[in-house]
Amino acid sequence: MRIFWVLYGIYKFVNDEKHLNPELWIKTDLNRFLELLEPLAARNKLGCILIQLPPSFTYERDYRNLEAFLGMVPDGYEFAAEFRHHSWMRDDTWKLLRRFGVGYCIVDEPLLPPEVRVTANFAYFRWHGRGSSPWYDYLYSEEELRDWVPRIESAKNEADKVYGYFNNHYHGFAVENCIEILEMFNAAKPEHQRIKEHIIRHNQPKRTVTHERKLEDFGFGASAPTVADLILRLTDEARLERGMEIKDNEIAIEELTEQTITAKIRNYGIRIDFEERVLQHDCDDWRKGIGIKRLCKHVTKLFLALPPARSNRILKDITENKSSWKFQYQ
Questions:
Q1: For the sheet containing 46-52, what is the strand order?
Q2: Which of 79, 163, 160, 152 is nearest to 114 (CA)?
Q3: How distant, in Å, are the alpha carbons of 48, 54, 91, 95 from that of 159?
Q4: Which of 68, 235, 253, 330 could disulfide-link to 295, CB 3.0 to 4.6 Å?
């Protein structure tokens, strides 16, 4: 069994204080970290080391820092980089990782698309879950996992080996889903099946993980939904409540036409293009929820402030044609 290590975004390598800046003694930090792992490496028990970068680590600002850091990584270790910002999804990133033999962390999460890129002699998959608060409070269905089988097969054709890591660890779901993936590749052993059955029995009262909320879940009847009802199809109660707390004098609707709506809420901007089905906003919570198309408190407030018929029309279209709508961070 190999042990996997994560250099988390809160670690001093990558936090706001250092951001992998080579002028801030990053190489010394790296050598100290690897020294701690030496007993595992010496016994061939060390797996891939994950560089988990925070959302604030962007291509435009931090490319040179990452390039310098990867140049410091000694031979004999397997490193993979996990990005949390869309700016890294470009050819220059894949070229950089290939140059240093560092793997790209192929993710299933709300912030980035599940794009398969093999940039080293190994592939690294990481399933975080598709929940909202938090992401990893999530149980993958068999159908959702089977969607990953051809992607893993594709990576196997390009890499010498494939690592897989489930981070949806609430209630033992990570272990259960990991075993299910092994079963799909006929790699599960009898003891795996016993462990899986034990976890399922233990978690039976908790296995009501809903992948899609319905109005009935919030106590609404079959009558015509209100704007608040429709908002709750696209966000949670806490964000709806925070949106309601924003004062009316904090929002300014700058443009309101049949096709386009633009508004300012506090220091943030919102733009809706109904014809093109585009919704743009620029707060941090919005950016974090783009992958699952979740409304933040500011966008929630806009829909509460618009004429109800107009909000109703847009929200219904978003919920009924969610895959066609583009949520963008502007």
A1: 3-7, 46-52, 79-82, 103-108, 122-127, 161-166
A2: 152
A3: 14, 27, 19, 16
A4: 235
Q: Taking a C-beta distance cutoff of 8 angstroms, is the pair 111, 84 a contact?
A: yes
3-206 CATH choice from 3.20.20.410, 3.20.20.150, 3.40.50.2000, 3.40.50.10210: 3.20.20.410
Residue 162 pLDDT class (50, 70, 90 cuts): very high
Structural tokens at position 25: 């003694």
DSSP characters over 78-108: -EEEE--SGGG-SHHHHHHHHHHTPEEEEEE
Give the span between the Cα atoms of 5 and 50, in whole angstroms: 6
Boundaries of every domain in the chain: 3-206, 215-329
pLDDT at 328: 94
Range name among 36-50, 70-84, 273-287 with the lowest pLDDT average: 36-50
Among 110, 148, 113, 105, CA closest to 129: 110
Helix (H, G, I), strand (E, B) or coil at 235: coil
Inter-residue long-range contacts of 197-201, CB under 8 Å, 24+ positions, other chains counted:
199/172, 199/175, 200/176
Per-residue model confidence (pLDDT) at position 172: 76
